[in-house]
Specification:
Helix content: 10-25%
Number of helices: 4
Strand content: 35-45%
CATH architecture: 3-Layer(aba) Sandwich
CATH superfamily: Ribokinase
CATH topology: UDP-N-acetylmuramoyl-L-alanine:D-glutamate ligase
């Protein structure tokens, strides 16, 4: 079976985006990660394995760099094919049938969470890197760090807190106002993944610092290209 650098699993969505009263249609979730990896120009091969197709409505407040969404993420579902990859990223772990994780035998596994019921404890010991935003934090972050195989990365507009339950790193990030932050968490994950594949895993502190910087650059660039 063909080998890929990065395999993406989870949700692909059609997003109806409202910026003030202007509406646009775009692909979201997995598409955001793929797009960010593509913009980084790393040359990594990426395999898209949608395991759920859905739709969402997203309201953007550019002035305060906020976004709020609601969606039906599992309109159609399937069991993915597992490919031999250096990195496997699972989108919206808490809204998937995640039995397929047991079939991933090679590479690093990362995942993120989204809104809704969070019942993922059975799979945390298989996750090398778990991404989540502050609004989806469902237990004490340091205790959560003890449950995952590797690290929990809690990200928010002004920075991040990363822990494995023993060590921790805090990074501050300048909040950029008047930009479209749709897909910011997906972009953050994409930058981190590609940075880890390009550098030493032992330098996670520096990689996180650079991840914040590059994520802000991509969001500002995207705002200039697509924003109003």
């Amino acid at each position: 079976m063909q080998k890929y650098d990065i395999s993406l699993y989870g949700h692909m969505t059609i997003d109806r985006i409202f910026n003030e009263f202007d509406e646009s249609i775009s692909l979201g979730a997995m598409a955001n990660v793929w797009s960010a990896i593509s913009k980084l120009g790393t040359g990594f091969s990426v395999k898209l394995n949608p395991t759920a197709l859905g739709e969402a409505i997203v309201l953007i407040n550019k002035k305060n760099a906020q976004r709020v969404g609601r969606g039906n993420l599992n309109l159609s579902t399937t069991t993915p094919t597992i490919y031999n990859s250096m990195w496997h990223h699972i989108m919206y772990l808490n809204r998937l049938n995640t039995d397929f994780i047991d079939d991933i035998k090679t590479g690093i596994i990362s995942a993120d969470l989204t809104d809704g019921e969070i019942n993922v404890e059975d799979h945390l010991n298989k996750i090398d890197y778990l991404f989540l935003s502050d609004e989806n934090l469902f237990m004490d972050i340091d205790e959560l760090g003890k449950l995952v195989k590797g690290w929990v990365i809690l990200h928010y507009p002004s920075g991040s807190y990363t822990t494995n339950g023993k060590q921790s790193y805090t990074h501050e990030n300048k909040v950029v106002k008047n930009i479209n932050v749709l897909g910011a968490g997906d972009t953050f994950a994409a930058v981190f993944i590609t940075s880890m594949l390009n550098a030493s895993p032992n330098n996670i502190d520096k990689i996180l610092e650079n991840t914040h910087k590059k994520t802000s650059e991509l969001l500002i660039e995207g705002n200039k290209t697509y924003g109003k």
